[in-house]
Each structure stands twice: as structure tokens, then as C-alpha cells.
User: What shape does this take?
Amino acid sequence: MTNPVKICDLMLRDGHQSLLATRMRTDDMLPITAKIDRVGYWAVEMWGGATFDSAMRFLDENPWDRVRRLKERMPNTPFMMLLRGQNVVGYKHYPDDVLERFVVHAHANGIDVFRIFDALNDVRNMRKAIEVVKREGAHVQASISYTIGPPYDVDYFVKTSSELADMGADSICIKDMAGLITPYIAYELVARLKADVGLPVHLHSHSTSGMGTAALFKATEAGVDIVDTAISALSGTTSHPPTESIVATLVGTERDTGLDLNLLAEIAAYFAAVRKKYARFESGMKGADVRVLQYQIPGGMLSNLVSQLRGQGAEDKYEEVLAEIPRVRAELGYPPLVTPSSQIVGTQATLNVVLGERYKIIPEEVRQYIRGYYGRPPAPIDPEIQRLAIGDEEPIDCRPADLIPSGMEQAREEVAALLGDLAWDEEDVISYALFPQVARPFLERRARGGNGQEPVVAAIAGLLLKRLEERASATAAPAGQTISPWKVAWRPGTGRWTGLVDGAGGMR
Assistant: This one.
């Protein structure tokens, strides 16, 4: 092994975000962590992106706890998170002080590598994040959001990467969030970045188009330093090339990763079983779909789009929405489709289709995008669409966050007034500052105990009681022993049940 390719596995973040709508619970990750920690990954991506609000919104988990719990079990593996630049882990721009406190706490809890990107490749929106991560002593992985269209070519991405290197990046990530990069463009772009920028290069791609694995291999030939993969049980379609396939193909070459295929197989078998628990969140996509080269939807958005249309009873409109997305994207200046621009374009396209009239309703997020509050669009916006959205108003031309006042003190005051002592520390305040409408009910549920598991607990306790009663009616209960619903209960914060103990060593 003269120049081994380093592997970053995405199983704990983008893998399940792309396939399972970000629904995997921390408890389903913990049992396999010891084996993951033995692999020798360059890093494991396990946080950021949509995992932060999904933890509170859907899983009733404190998102900060995931970092701590996993780090406790995986002390030898660097952790990477996806940071949306000035959007932090949200869908709008936040004040500089909120971004700063988020990064400080994320690093203190165990995040070692911050993959920082901006949805519009507007480097002004990445400057503050790079500055704070650098100051805290973590690894700055500055990312270019790869896409195709009139504004984009290899020179565009090399120029943007050079600007990020000048800002202090430690490595450059080609973030191909929709699986659009062809193998030969991957080779050319990696070679140019290595020669012209001079920083380690990391390639991230998806398997949606079917080109992801080939792109990674051509990138290794061009000298890429690190590649993103996902363990095979959470790979393919809208996810990523499978880890084991990449590792096996490079065995015996100068780019041999040196990773243990038997250990990887054990990890894959574990997640194959876990994945079945989340089958209802699958997109239904069975294989590669080269139409992604037209509609350019990133992996995580596809599974969520299907879920949202299903929830509105409009799943039959899926193909129409896919066809509408590239039209809206062109009208809005060809933004790369990655959070939050993918949601902005996708929401407008969905409304255009479902309402049967284009731009009948224009969401406020679309108007704000056109006003320049997400940054500078890569290409001019269609003048007619701009007029429909904001009339004769002139878009701003400064860094959007320059117009946002400090936010932490206001968040502290609101938390104190609305939640009192339900917020335990500054991390809770940051969660509220980022997602007030999600964090408030989460913190209220947490204060009641059980982290929102009360309905599940009650149902399981009822079932256990029924079974105990059936046993008691079949055979007389031992002297002095009674069957009581109060003896079967969940102990919040322990992850354990308490219950009746019988002579046969029954449940406790």
C-alpha cells in the first residue's frame, strides 16, 4: 500500500437520510458501534444535515445526545458532520453568534470534521463557519456543491475551491449530492483540484444515476485522497456506492484501503436487519434512474418528496413534479439542488403541479431567495418570475447574514419566558434558536418524562399486563404475589423496564 484511499462511511447520516427519510434512531446505531470503531475509517459522518431537526421532530431525541452517546462508544473514530454554512443545520440564514455557539458545542461534544457548504456556492456564506471551526481547532472541509447547467464547468469549481482554500480550508470536498458527476469529469476535476488548489480532495457522490461507483474509481486514478461510501446494507439507489465494493476492488493495488472486509460484512448484516424496521419510509425506488441528470434531485430529497406527496394524498403527481423541478430551477437561476435550495425549488414545483397553475402561490422562502436573502444566485433569475414574486423590489447584494442581528440573547429571553427551567443548558437554547417551533414542544415533552414514549409505553405495559393476567388465570399465583399494572413500567432515562419478577426469572 503506497497511497491508500481513505474511506469516510455515511451509514449513520446520509445513508439513512437518503433511503429512510432520516428516521433511524440512535438506539438502533449503538449496538454496532464497537465494530464500526474497529474498522479504521478516516471518519464516519454521523450528524448534521437533516438529522438535527428530525431528531426532535420525529424521534423525540435530543440531537446533541446522539453525538455524545456515539462518541462514548466510538472513541477511536473521527466524527464528521454536514454544516450548511450560514444555514447551520436549518433552512434559512442564522445570526453569526448562533452559528458560532453551535460550532463550539458541536466540537466540544465530539465533532472532529466539519463539512461546510453553501447551497448556492456563495463563499461569503461559508466564511464565518470556516473562521469559527478553524479557531476551535477542528478540520475545515470546505465543499463545492457539484451540479450541471449553464453556469457550471470544471473551471467554475476550481475557481470556487481556490477561494475556499484562501479562506483556510484544510481539505476540499466535491459534494455531488444528486449523483450527477460522470466518471471522466470526476477524473478531470480531481486532477485539476490536486494540481491547482493543492489541498486533499474528498469525493462525495450518490448512486442515483448509477455512475457513483465508477466515478469514485476514476477519482482514485486521479489521486483523490478520500471517498465517501455507505455500508452495503444502506447503499445504492439514492444513497451511495457500497463500502465493501470499493474496498474489495482496490485490494492489492497501490490504492488498497487496508480495511477488513469480514468486519465490514458483519456491520452490513446488522444494518440489513435494522433497515427492515424503517421500510415504510423507503422511496420505492428499485434501481438507478438516469433521469436524475434532468431533474437533479439529491438523494435525501427524493425519499422525503415521496413521503410528503404520500402524506398529501398526491403520490400520483410524483412524475409531474419531477418534470417541473428543472423548469423551476432554470427560472430561479440554476441553483444547485441541495438543502435549502432543493426544498425551495421542490416546494415551488410541487405547488405548481398540485394547484394546476404555475406560481399561483409563491412561498415566502421563494420570495426571500429571489430577494437575495439566501445569497447570490449562480445565474440571473427569470425577470418575469422575479416580477411575480417581488414586483419592482431590488434584491440585496451583500452577505445576507450582515443584515441579521445577534440571536442568542433573544433566544435566551424567549426560552426563559416560554419554557422557564425546561431548557437545561445552552445547547437547548441553541436548539430553540435554530428551530423554535420544533424545539419548544420537544422540550415540553422531555419535561414530562419518557421523551415522548408515553403512548408506546402504555401500549406495551397493557399488553404485558394482559399476558400476566392470562398466566395468573391459568395457574394460581404464588402466595403473596399480585398482578398489578403499576409493577410494569418504563423507567425514563434508563432505557430499562421495571416489572414483576416471578420464580421463573420473568421480566424485570
Remarks:
- The chain has 21 helices and ten strands.
